[in-house]
TrEMBL record:
Single GO MF annotation: 5-formyltetrahydrofolate cyclo-ligase activity
Catalyzed reactions: (6S)-5-formyl-5,6,7,8-tetrahydrofolate + ATP = (6R)-5,10-methenyltetrahydrofolate + ADP + phosphate
InterPro entries: FTHF_cligase, FTHF_cligase-like_sf, NagB/RpiA_transferase-like
Family, per entry: Belongs to the 5-formyltetrahydrofolate cyclo-ligase family.
Protein's UniProt name: 5-formyltetrahydrofolate cyclo-ligase
Record EC number: 6.3.3.2
Listed Gene3D superfamilies: NagB/RpiA/CoA transferase-like
């Protein structure tokens, strides 16, 4: 076998593995969404309240710091209590500005009431996009100001690999994080897993997992 042929075989193997991991992610995501849809709005709000309380107890929130968080959507637990807790602690809050979906951007959130639904071209609410503020967006480098970065997850394993929404937005965004910043994944209590989460080379592990039942540091 010539060197070029060896490279081609290795390349094919790498591509096949990446495709297999993406298919596993798709299956895991489908199962997770189906389970989450069995929750109701009241349960999501109560879970959000407990989540904020666990963040306080775990000493994740420090006054007068910058925190990158997110606005919940769909069957995610409500992030409103967490955002309000950050405001009450005098934190500066950054939330994602998705732009075209691949663009990385952040905006400073001044109030819970500044979050607005995103609309489709026909004026209907886009249920596949989180709420965003209407102020100007900052570039991806704004994340360097954040000491705590809170990200959504469908699953997290013991190595810190998380299953996200599928667009790779956070993995690209986290490339801009500051050295020493803590990245914490938020998920429902049944979603941290002993089984390795399917992942690819570009996936960035988190430092901890926060659920309504508590906070766990991740072994890395």
């Amino acid at each position: 076998m010539t060197p070029n042929m060896q490279t081609d075989v290795a390349g094919d193997g790498t591509r096949d593995e990446a495709l297999a991991q993406r298919e596993l992610k798709r299956q895991w995501r489908k199962t997770a969404i189906a389970r989450r849809k069995r929750t109701n709005p009241e349960e999501r709000l109560e879970a959000g309240r407990k989540l904020a309380e666990q963040a306080r107890q775990a000493n994740l929130i420090h006054s007068f710091t910058t925190v990158a968080a997110f606005a919940s959507m769909g069957s995610e637990m409500s992030m409103t209590p967490m955002l309000q807790t950050l405001f009450d602690s005098n934190c500066r809050i950054l939330v994602p500005r998705l732009g075209k979906g691949t663009d990385i951007g952040w905006s400073e959130l001044d109030s819970i009431h500044d979050l607005h639904d995103q609309t489709n071209s026909d004026g209907s609410i886009n249920t596949h996009r989180p709420q965003e503020p209407s102020n100007s967006a900052c570039g991806p480098e704004a994340l360097k100001d954040a000491g705590l970065i809170i990200v959504p997850a469908f699953a997290v394993d013991h190595e810190g690999f998380r299953l996200g929404r599928g667009g790779g937005w956070y993995d690209r965004a986290l490339e801009y994080r500051a050295i020493g910043a803590r990245v914490v994944a938020v998920c429902w209590p049944w979603e941290p897993t002993d089984e390795p989460v399917p992942h690819e080379a570009h996936d960035i592990p988190v430092n901890g997992v926060l659920t309504p039942n508590g906070f766990t540091e991740v072994r890395q």
